[in-house]
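Support request from a user on the community tier.

User writes: "When I paste my structure tokens into the form, the page sometimes reloads and wipes my input. The last time it worked, I copied everything first. Here is what I submitted, just in case something in the input itself triggers the reload:"
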């Protein structure tokens, strides 16, 4: 390809990208109009509140459609989340430590997921009991460091929350994290004990990203003792 052909091709691509950006922004404006009545009321910073909720909705919806082959909606919602985040950064209110960042809690993500699913598939909603989803999960970064957590909701959304908020195994800049569920269908009343046990078993306070030993010291010590036994046997 000659220099002239290269420049012509570059110009064409630039025009195509500009057209696509305009299309996405026009569609995002419609998404904002749709999101406005669903946004929690805010007496202060209503624009920031709208963009924050648009970001949350778009993030959840992009996940809902991500596994559908050739889904235009997955692509759209993923881009809507980026547009909302960019616009929010311009109007974000100031907190004690600077501009308040975008984040979503595990419970909020789960509730929003259920709400969006109900809006999309009103005839296909099936009640889900917390016990069926309650689990202990493990994240392992590419350096072999561990993070153990618990959730009452779908673990996929806990992982999305960790990545979006740079928490858990992502908080020190890790890019590639392997995830797995250690125990499923855990009695919610037993989650804290099991979480502490696995934090000890994987020694994820010393060799990982857990900041504490959890809420059950005895379970943690039991797991740590088993970790030391296995390490000594190697």
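"...and here is what came back when it finally went through:"
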């Amino acid at each position: 390809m000659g220099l002239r052909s290269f420049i012509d091709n570059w110009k064409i691509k630039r025009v195509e990208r500009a057209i696509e950006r305009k299309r996405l922004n026009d569609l995002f404006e419609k998404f904002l109009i749709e999101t406005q009545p669903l946004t929690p009321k805010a007496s202060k910073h209503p624009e920031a509140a709208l963009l924050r909720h648009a970001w949350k909705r778009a993030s959840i919806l992009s996940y809902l459609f991500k596994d559908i082959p050739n889904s235009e909606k997955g692509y759209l919602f993923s881009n809507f989340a980026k547009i909302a985040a960019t616009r929010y950064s311009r109007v974000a209110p100031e907190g004690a430590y600077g501009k308040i960042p975008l984040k979503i809690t595990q419970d909020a993500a789960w509730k929003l997921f259920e709400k969006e699913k109900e809006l999309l598939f009103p005839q296909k909603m099936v009640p889900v009991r917390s016990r069926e989803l309650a689990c202990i999960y493990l994240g392992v970064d590419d350096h072999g460091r561990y993070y153990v957590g618990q959730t009452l909701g779908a673990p996929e959304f806990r992982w999305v929350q960790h990545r979006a908020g740079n928490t858990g195994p992502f908080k020190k800049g890790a890019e590639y994290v392997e995830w797995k569920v250690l125990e499923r269908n855990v009695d919610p009343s037993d989650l804290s004990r099991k979480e502490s046990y696995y934090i000890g078993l994987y020694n994820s306070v010393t060799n990982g990203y857990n900041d504490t030993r959890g809420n059950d010291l005895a379970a943690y010590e039991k797991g740590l003792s088993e970790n030391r036994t296995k390490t000594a046997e190697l």
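Agent notes: The reload is a front-end session timeout and is unrelated to the input. Strands lie at 94-95, 98-99, 135-141, 146-151, 177-183. The first helix runs from residue 3 to 35. Escalated to web team.
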